[in-house]
Structure formats: C-alpha cells, structure tokens
Sequence to fold (502 residues):
Amino acid sequence: MSIFATKSIEQIKAEAAASGEHSLKRVLGPLNLVTLGIGAIIGTGIFVLTGQAAAQYTGPAIVLSMVLAGFASALAGLCYSEFAATVPIAGSAYTYGYATLGEFIAWVIGWDLILEYALGAATVAVGWSGHLTSFLHDFLGISIPPAFAAAPCTLINTAGCSPDAIINLPAVLITAAVTVLIVIGIKESANVNTAIVLVKVAVVVIVILGGAAYINTANWHPFIPENTGRFGEYGWSGVLRGAGVIFFAYIGFDAVSVAAQEAKNPQKDMPIGILGSLVVCTIFYILVSGVMVGLVPYKQMLGQAAPMVVAIRAAEAASGGSSLLHMMTMLVELGAIAGLSSVMVVMMMAQPRIFYSMANDGLLPPFAKKIHPRFRTPHITSIITGVAVALAAGFTPIGALGELVSIGTLLAFVIVSIGVIFLRYQRPELERPFKTPLVPFVPALSALVSFALMAGLPGETWLRLVVWMAIGFVIYFGYGYSHSEVRRRDTALEAAGGTRRR
Fold:
C-alpha cells in the first residue's frame, strides 16, 4: 500500500504480453533504432545551443564541455542499455523506476520526462523556425514578418524578447505536421527519420571537412577565457555550466529505449541503438564544436538563432567570399531544417509512449492508453502532445526551454543510474542480456556526474523544476494514487487475506 510499491519485472512483461491486439507493433530493427537515436541527438544542440553556450559560458572551451557532457551521457547510456535489454517495454526510465524504486519515484520520472520530450520538441521547433526564417530570407528572398517568427515576452524569461513578437508561427506549423506523422504510424515515422538522418549526417561531415580548411587558430586563444567573477561565465565553472546547458545536445539516445516495445529483438538491439547512436554523435559533436569556434570569435554568436550559419558567414567574409563556404551556408540551413525535423519526430513519438505506460498503471486516465485500431499508435496522447508542444514552441523563448529540458533529463539520468544499483542487489538472479560494467562504480559515477551538471545550471532553472514537480505531486496525489493498478492489486490481496483469516 506504500507509495513506493514496485512492479516486478515479470509482472511488467506479462502485462505487455497480455495486451494482444491493443499493444504496440514490433517493427523496428537495429538500423531503425540507431537512426532513431542519431535522429534525436543531432539537432538543436549542434545547430543552435552549441554556439550560444560558447558565446555565453565557455568560449573555445566548448569542446571540453562537449567531452564532459558526452562522458555523462556515455555513463547514463550504459545504465539505460541494461534496463532496456532487461525490461524491453515502452516507458523508458519511468518503467525502470517502477521496477526498482517504486511507484512514486516512477511518477516523478514520468512527470519529469515531459520536460525532456515535450519541451525538448518545443525547443527544437523554435530552432527549426530560426533556420527556416534565415533560409527563406537569404536564399529565396522571402521574409517572414518578425511578429510571426518569434515568441512574445513571457513570464518565463522577459530578457531579450522582441516587444513586437506575437507568435512563432513556423514552429507551430512544423509541430502540427510532425503530429500528423506520428499518429499515422511508428514504421512510417522511423522511415522518414532514417532518410533525414542520412541528409544531416552528410551536412555535418561537410561542415567538419570544409570548415577545417578555414579555421583561424587565433580564435582558439585563450582556449579557456578568464572567469568574469561570476560562476558560470567562462573559466572552469563556465565549462561546467556549458556542459549542463549543451547536455540538451545529447538527449535522444534514451528516446531509443522508449521504443523498446516496438523493437523486433529488443534484448539484442536496444543496447546497439542506444550506445551506437551515442558514440557516433559524440565524435561529431566534438569535431563540429571545435570547427565552429575556430571559424569566428565566439562572442559573435551571442544571441543568434542560427549560430553555426553565423560562424560560416563570418569565415566567408574573412576569406573574401569563398564559394565553398557560401555553399556550406546553404547546406547547413537545409541540413538544420531537415535535421531538426527528425529530432521532433523522435521526441514527439516518445512522449505519448510515456503517457501510454503511465495510463496502463492507472496513474493517468484510461484515454491515455487508447491505441488507434488501424495505425496501432497512441493517437489521443499524440494529439495532446502536439498541441502542448505547439503552444510551448509558439510562445516560449528557446533559452528557457533548453535549460529546463536539460535539468529534467539529468534528473531522470540520476534516478535510472541509482535504479541499476538497486536492481542488481534486489534481483541478482535476473537475466540481463546486457550488463552495465563495474557496478556499482559506473552507475554511481553516472549519478554523480549528472547531478554535478544539474548543479551548474542557473538558479531560476532549478526554481522552474521545483514548480513543475509540485504540479506533478498535486496530480499524483489527486488522481494517480487512488487509481493505481498496483494499489488496487495490493488492496485486493489484503482483502482476500482478511477473508481467509475470518
């Protein structure tokens, strides 16, 4: 009857198997899973937030922030891989938390993951809008009115807002298009994502190889700018804060675990999808960030919606109008537009599956677990997610969104890492197709590093997290606690025991 009641691994698997025709469709192979991860990882972080973090926090040391964030992601990725292979069920960290730390912690994770997936998709939509606006203006001569291309001043962040802005209309429209796609089906969404991933990986490779020839090494000095006297503004504290902010760039590998119930052979393929996509993207990120801060003085990227384009244009001007750099500008814009679209597909595909798992456990109303009879997708929650993402993307600045997504994801990583240790000691006999090495050292280090990155984020981001969690607690104790399937089971068992005693 405790709020920390758990569901056994066997029970979780049995419930998924018993759902029959109302379950999700297993259609994804290892290539689909790897490209899902790459599709979610390479996006706003590399095309937008990397330049902004370099300008505000790290300078050229953005490369070190990338290494630190990648290290934290690798540790968390090992933990996720063990859980995803052991418990191949939709729900990701939420399901893992329920099996190890109990219902209330599972709720905290599930509510927290809304910050990662729904707000993550909104952040990407804002970045997509910035690149589309830039591309239309620079290459087609079409200008979107500023009033309809940016979020208005909001209560979340009033600094630097345009007083004339009304709504970020392109962000709203791309959200609507992606919502339609994810309702139609997981296989269709995965195929579209795979095609787009090939395009944006090609663009990233071109930027690395082409941009390397125009690097001005003077832009790398000083590599770690002197701290301004405030924590997080350059110096080593800036490297830490930069890692926390751009950690958003690595989000995506865990979205692979959300699709575990739609994988053909999850025990084998989930670790491949998670770790494979993470390794590929970490290498790309370190190289791209080094090239970007080598092309232009880092402060020139401050406040820019498309900082990578700004860097290439500055290098083009310095070179006297290089045709290669001019072509790279157009390719980056097209790659960003395509690439950010695929990130939205993966994130907006993940969120409804979290809701699906929570509704199966009774913590959300029954409509959240309904599956479309033809498409076999959670269509109602997909539409709800689309509406929420559209509102956030249309009316919220990207900086506030990105930091909130990072802290929410890092909190999930902390809990999942601790969960691996708990499950190893609680159920040592459990079959684990993939094992996190050096337990408890690796999971403990993963939790500590993720929490350290959280500690480096601004205080107002922590405040927003506390407010968000408080809202979640109200919903849990107001609805989820009394409707919990686990609690109903325990109540029935207790009543049956009392009857037998009488």
